[in-house]
């Protein structure tokens, strides 16, 4: 009986610990698991398994995977029936781009940088942030993108027009000027200061991201954007 109780409480402790660690690590890990992340995940799983094996002796240890499976099924049922539990265990969608503007405070909560964002957008065939109406990090790490309405209409091919696409060129990232990209486009600091001045920006450190568009204009996203309205996707049962 003592061994049975040990395998039950040790399996429960490991399960709860893994849930807590998964929530701390966050959904970014699910979407962009690097080699280092993979190794850490293996180590965490190995340590958790070793804890149970060293604590429980004999054939009783075989009950642990059964208990963990039962707990997983029970958790899935709980999140299916209970909104509060689903928000606690699975999390909520997080908007990182709204109407072409990056929401830096949400990026910070996800520990998500501009390079990660650009990579995820390119995987969705979006090469320019200003073309995005919404970019959302889903609870399980998937990345969803809705392009602006005008970018969902007829393409040049549909209209029988020839042309060549061109990627936007990064000019400023996290307040740092990318001098090489300026030079490659035959631009200099005077041009950049003039463009920033048109937007009333006196200090480049105020800029989170800036990119040169294919039409020669400069797209700018400030670190402290003032948006008239920010769409929320979180569930709020109290408002129903």
Name the helicity range: 40-55%
- The main sheet orders its strands as 2-1-3-4
Distance between the termini: 48 Å
Number of domains: 3
Number of strands: 8
Average pLDDT over all residues: 80
The total count of helices amounts to 9
Which oligomerization state do the chains in this entry correspond to? single chain
Q: Helix/strand-derived class?
A: alpha+beta
Strand content: 15-25%
Main pleated-sheet profile: 4 strands, antiparallel
Order of helices and strands: HHHHHEEHHEEEEHHEE
- Ranges where pLDDT stays below 50 over 5 or more residues in a row are none
Write the layout of secondary structure elements.
Elements: H1 2-25, H2 27-31, H3 35-55, H4 63-81, H5 83-90, E1 94-98, E2 101-102, H6 104-110, H7 114-123, E3 132-137, E4 143-147, E5 169-173, E6 176-177, H8 179-184, H9 189-198, E7 207-212, E8 218-222
Helix pairs in contact: 1-3, 1-4, 4-5
Q: What does this entry look like structurally?
A:
The protein is of the alpha+beta class and 240 residues long. It has three domains: 89 residues, no CATH class; 61 residues, 2-Layer Sandwich (CRO Repressor); 62 residues, CRO Repressor, CATH 3.30.240. Helix content is 46%, strand content 15%. It is built from nine helices and eight strands. The strands form two sheets. It has a four-stranded antiparallel beta sheet with strand order 2-1-3-4. The protein has a four-stranded antiparallel beta sheet with strand order 6-5-7-8. β1 and β2 form a beta hairpin. α1 packs antiparallel against α3. The longest helix has 24 residues. The chain is elongated and about 80 Å long. 14% of the residues are buried. The mean pLDDT is 80.
